[in-house]
């Protein structure tokens, strides 16, 4: 069975497309399930901040891998890959269509491909990488890794993995074809940039109104270092909603830049289109 993967920047409406797609698939007699591939929605206690599917949306489409990691724990793409593979393989064995939904490219790749994210480190390789300019190294990393430009350890480690081929470059011509674990239709959602930014502004306001700041304060003293990387976490702790909007727009811009390099992806423009219209286009591709 073909897996359907829906990828796009934050705020573009991936969940709405997945729900409309599921409805179309049910009309064909299928039983679809969404599998989240988001590095922050997997944490418990932050559903509003991370934009996870709410109770109504989950009633319309079953979602897996949301809120299953305690917020005080650190979590890796390698651990996520193992869990995502179990979910996807199990759904296919039950003849249920997996719809993988996410905005974190690294986690999307981890869900769809066989990746060993922790190879042994070659000291000579590490030395060569560490000798390079830190700003240059940071600029070369895939934006969805969300590594701070001053985080030397993580920047060097990411380059080690990239150099050994364990984290394929987004330009890998085989990543979404022969190298996926199951046949996969990858839909890359895009939108007019200004429209997307307007959606992000409204989304952040809605998050704040729904209690995102209270969520953050409730886990301020227990959240792990990885959980605290969620866009808006630190900004809401300091009460700076405008900074949250700015950083969310910047993150979406990086996601779109990375998305344009995806090989084998079907780009779908959501500008002035309904989720139902997009869902019909995706079903026609199956």
Describe, in plain words, how this protein is organized in 3D.
This protein is α/β, with parallel strands linked by helices. The protein has two domains: 3-115 and 172-285, Rossmann fold; 119-167. The chain is built from 13 helices and six strands. The chain has a six-stranded parallel β-sheet with strand order 3-2-4-1-5-6, with helices on both faces. The longest helix is centred in the last third of the chain and has 19 residues, at 241-259. Residues 168-178 have low confidence and may be disordered.
Could you give a quick summary of the protein structure above?
The protein has 13 helices and six strands.
The number of distinct structural domains comes to: 2
Question: What is the gyration radius calculated from CA atoms?
Answer: 19 Å
What is the CATH architecture term of the largest domain? 3-Layer(aba) Sandwich
Distance between the termini: 10 Å
* Count of alpha/pi helices: 13
Assembly status: single chain
List keywords for this structure.
6-stranded parallel beta sheet; 13 helices; alpha/beta; Rossmann fold; 286 residues
How would the blueprint of this fold be written?
Layout lengths: L2 E5 L6 H14 L5 E4 L10 H4 L4 H6 L2 E2 L12 H17 L4 E5 L2 H8 L10 H8 L3 H6 L12 H12 L20 E7 L2 H18 L1 H7 L14 H5 L3 H19 L6 E4 L5 H11 L1
Parallel strand pairs: 1-4, 1-5, 2-3, 2-4, 5-6
Helix pairs in contact: 1-13, 4-5, 6-8, 9-12
């Amino acid at each position: 069975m073909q897996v359907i993967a829906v990828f796009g920047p934050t705020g573009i409406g991936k969940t709405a497309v997945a729900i409309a797609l599921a409805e179309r698939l049910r009309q064909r007699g299928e039983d679809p399930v969404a599998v989240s591939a988001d590095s922050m929605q997997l944490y418990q206690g932050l559903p509003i901040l991370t934009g996870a599917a709410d109770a109504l949306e989950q009633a319309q489409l079953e979602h897996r891998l949301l809120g299953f990691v305690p917020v005080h724990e650190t979590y890796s793409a390698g651990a996520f890959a193992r869990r995502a593979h179990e979910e996807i393989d199990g759904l296919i064995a039950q003849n249920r269509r997996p719809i993988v939904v996410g905005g974190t490219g690294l986690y999307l790749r981890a869900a769809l491909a066989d990746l060993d994210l922790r190879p042994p480190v070659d000291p000579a390789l590490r030395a060569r990488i560490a000798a390079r300019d830190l700003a240059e190294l940071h600029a070369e990393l895939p934006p969805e890794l969300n590594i701070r430009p001053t985080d030397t350890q993580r920047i060097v480690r990411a380059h080690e993995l990239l150099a050994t081929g364990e984290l394929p470059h987004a330009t890998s011509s085989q990543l979404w074809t022969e190298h996926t674990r199951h046949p996969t239709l990858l839909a890359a959602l895009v939108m007019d940039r200004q429209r997307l930014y307007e959606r992000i502004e409204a989304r952040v306001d809605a998050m704040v109104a729904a209690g995102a700041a209270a969520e953050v304060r409730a886990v301020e003293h227990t959240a792990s270092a990885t959980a605290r990387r969620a866009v808006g976490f630190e900004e809401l702790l300091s009460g700076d909603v405008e900074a949250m909007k700015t950083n969310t727009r910047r993150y979406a811009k990086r996601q779109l830049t990375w998305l344009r390099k995806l090989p084998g992806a079907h780009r779908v423009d959501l500008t002035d289109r309904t989720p139902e219209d997009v869902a019909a286009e995706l079903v026609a591709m199956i």
